[in-house]
């Protein structure tokens, strides 16, 4: 006889704290793997943070790994007692300066380039079409139809059901310069209404999660050329795949039906 699955009741706040802690440990392991493997999930030309990491000594990489994770996951990172080293803070400032400088250089190259070679740079609608094709080819069979409310925003969104939660993946392509940014939001699928104002926001266990963002490496593929756009779309699909593979384990035991509405 097959036994029914048992759930341990917990409040939304307890589930959120547990999820955040699991996400931190997962990101910590993934960042270590990326650093040791030379960032095989990233194209360093598009990610200045990866290039900065690669320029460091082994000792500096260890310090910077801790610093970027504690900056991205400040509450969860303090649960296991880990000191924030001054070396890590200095390296974090250096990385931020390096990434800002690289961003300025790409901005300059883009705005100079569109004046003389506009065809080298895709428009937002071109990126939307490319991302849609890549995402549907990779995950279309897993997607469920959007409701009328979910389609109302007008953006590019996809929904996949995992562990009783709706995982919404939303994309943004920029208004002025071409870029790709995405995020996964884990939510109940319920909308706050006058009749039911106290649904879990509530509703949301994780908001705008993405592989690079959780590792503290950035969030946007920006100022893309036509050649870079295809590479970025493949990378987006790979990052989404990594997140979709991780979420069932991260959500194990935190299924929506196991939560109470208590704070």
Summary keywords:
263 residues; flat; disordered N terminus; 6-stranded antiparallel β-sheet; alpha+beta; single chain; 8 strands; 9 helices; 50% helix
Description:
Helix 2 crosses helix 5, helix 3 crosses helix 5 (86-116) and helix 6 packs across helix 9 (226-250). It is built from nine helices and eight strands. The chain has one domain (10-260). It has 263 residues and is α+β, with helices and mostly antiparallel strands.
Compact summary:
It contains nine helices and eight strands.
What is the fold's blueprint, element by element?
Layout: E1 10-11, H1 12-37, H2 48-54, H3 58-72, H4 74-77, H5 86-116, H6 124-139, E2 143-144, H7 148-151, E3 156-162, E4 165-172, E5 179-187, E6 204-209, H8 211-214, E7 220-222, H9 226-250, E8 259-260
Parallel strand pairs: 1-8
Antiparallel strand pairs: 2-3, 3-4, 4-5, 5-6, 5-7
Helix pairs in contact: 1-3, 2-5, 3-5, 6-9
Structural classification? alpha+beta
**Total DSSP E strands:** 8
What is the total number of structural domains?
1
Cα-based radius of gyration, to the nearest Å: 20 Å
Q: Kindly state the mean pLDDT as a whole number?
A: 85
* Overall spatial form: flat
**Proportion of residues in helical segments:** 40-55%
Number of helices: 9
The ordered string of helix (H) and strand (E) elements is EHHHHHHEHEEEEHEHE
Beta-strand percent range: 5-15%
Strand count, sense and barrel status of the largest sheet are: 6 strands, antiparallel
pLDDT < 50 runs, ≥5 residues: 1-7
Distance between the termini: 37 Å
């Amino acid at each position: 006889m097959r036994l029914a699955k048992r759930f341990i009741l917990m409040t939304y706040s307890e589930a959120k704290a547990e999820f955040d802690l699991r996400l931190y440990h997962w990101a910590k392991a993934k960042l270590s793997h990326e650093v040791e493997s030379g960032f095989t999930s990233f194209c360093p030309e598009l990610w200045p943070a990866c290039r900065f990491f690669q320029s460091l000594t082994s000792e500096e990489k260890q310090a910077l790994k801790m610093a970027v994770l504690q900056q991205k996951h400040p509450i969860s990172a303090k649960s296991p007692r880990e000191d924030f080293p001054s070396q890590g803070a200095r390296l974090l400032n250096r990385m931020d300066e390096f990434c800002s400088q690289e961003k300025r250089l790409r901005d300059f190259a883009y705005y100079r380039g569109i004046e003389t070679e506009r065809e080298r740079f895709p428009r937002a609608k071109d990126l939307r079409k490319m991302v849609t094709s890549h995402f549907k080819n990779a995950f279309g069979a897993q997607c469920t139809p959007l409701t009328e409310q979910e389609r109302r925003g007008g953006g590019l969104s996809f929904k996949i059901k995992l562990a009783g939660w709706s995982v919404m993946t939303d994309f943004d392509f920029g208004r002025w310069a071409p870029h790709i940014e995405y995020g996964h939001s884990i939510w109940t699928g319920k909308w706050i209404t006058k009749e039911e104002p106290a649904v879990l926001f509530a509703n949301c266990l994780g908001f705008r999660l993405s592989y690079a963002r959780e590792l503290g490496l950035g969030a946007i593929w920006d100022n893309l050329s036509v050649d870079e756009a295809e590479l970025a779309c493949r990378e987006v699909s790979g990052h989404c795949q990594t997140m979709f593979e991780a979420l069932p384990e991260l959500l194990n035991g935190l299924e929506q039906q196991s939560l109470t509405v208590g704070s």
